[in-house]
């Protein structure tokens, strides 16, 4: 502290010296702590925004944070007559905030919060009210972080009552978000939605429109996490007119799904807490928060992908890319996912105004905004890569588009895991490790699908091995082994190794899941049933009808437009009646076109053409020729080979020898590629133990191979 002493050539003492002389050393310590933290935050922001510009920044960042903590520890330790009880409560609150936000010392942070609450409770009057509410907020965050949800509920009940009593609506909103989160984490879905709707009703009453949108977005997000897609789309319909994207307005909630016997499966009724009182005339007020628009678009894209509104998905994806460009983080808070939703009495949003309104100042005033912590900017950025890859995956007219999105996204997530140089703060990266693990696994498995569609089995195998490695390293193997087993089965199925494929499909079917907790496993099992139905579609001794019925029943619970299309194709293949079979295939052709799913469209054209050929229908040539051209254009090697062979056979049957010869020449490249792949038995290394796979070129792949067979051996052991 020598730099704070009186300079020898100064005629008047510095402010620091004056404060010390007056016994207000705590103010000097406060100022020093905030200066260190500001330097740390600036260093962190620059290093994140300009990667590679600050080598070794993390060590310097930790040193600065440690210096700030030491200043605050000294502040709470000193005894000074000029330090009031309110000062003591503030200093312990600030110390607890830094410990919670910048370190993993949760016990110490909780201890400081408890001491500060005792001090604040002893202060007469309302001067400590704001500090008390901040303390309750931080205490709740600590309880949530340590999964002590009942204690969190108790704290929120006390805090909410106090905020409501004083009509501090900004705090009521804040505590509503926390209460909804706690209810959700305790599997109390009704309680969570009720709390969110109460918050939205209060925001509507107070004219805080953006806050109402925030409550609806969270309600939609929770619905999506529980695989309640219709419920999520209910909230989307409420929000869409206010998000400034006109192309997204015209969509409806699916209301019914026809079954094979002509009856109708109605979706589960929305729980009563979801129904909101809305005015008859649609309020066209627009949401002002760019961050809320980003989260709305992410929610919208997820729901539209599943429901099959592909054109609207692409509109929303373009809007999301544009919105991200307009929401670049302006400070470290926004980089870490904390953004401000302002209330109806807006304040200056300039950097100076934001600094003056910072909730971390020592003399807090009632908040004119609500701070919401959602995903970090890095998480949103990575998630957008995944969504872009998924949206591009079905359309193989541009085969590299989806692959490029997913490969780049995997690189970004890899950096999050490896060095953390691109993270806002290492503590937040560690707290978000599981989220990044799930995201990385989704990217790898979707990339494997892309390679399978392109018939690049070597790349598909390599990517799948990487997925199994990461599943083990990140501790999510039990969650993803069913999806990995399904992918192995599909690769073997693609290679016509049907007995081995059946073994792996049965592994996937052995998964006992609840789709609310494990939608990946639930859908993997549904797809396994559909693919088994395809394998045994021509075997009348096998009860394929039971398999198809079970797949349909599961799909009715957790619906997906692409799965629905696959079920139509399966019905077309397994139905003994020619007319119903054609009807199902025509429906799959229509649906696949709407979905822009080029693989299912090629398959539908091939099967329709085959049916027309067997029925000697004049449309056979048209269907098969269109199917061959479509499959060739979209790099679908196997369907192109199969369709071309059937088309050549049709030309021979109809005495069109020249056309048959020309078609045989077109088929040759596809047939040679398929034969080469099958004869090389490229899939063998995928199933070999590491002792028998030393001739594989990749040592990394050899290291990962035992993980692939883990599900198989585990299943055999349990049987």
UniProtKB/TrEMBL annotation:
It is found in: Nucleus. GO terms for cellular component: nucleus. GO terms for biological process: cell division; chromosome segregation; mitotic sister chromatid cohesion. It comes from the Eukaryota. The keyword DNA damage does not apply. It holds the Pfam family Cohesin_load. Residues 688-704 have a biased composition (Low complexity). InterPro entries: MAU2 (IPR019440). Keywords: Cell cycle, Cell division, Chromosome partition, Mitosis, Nucleus. The keyword Cell division applies. Residues 682-705 are annotated as: Disordered. PANTHER family: MAU2 CHROMATID COHESION FACTOR HOMOLOG. Belongs to the SCC4/mau-2 family. This is Cohesin loading factor. It comes from Linnemannia exigua.
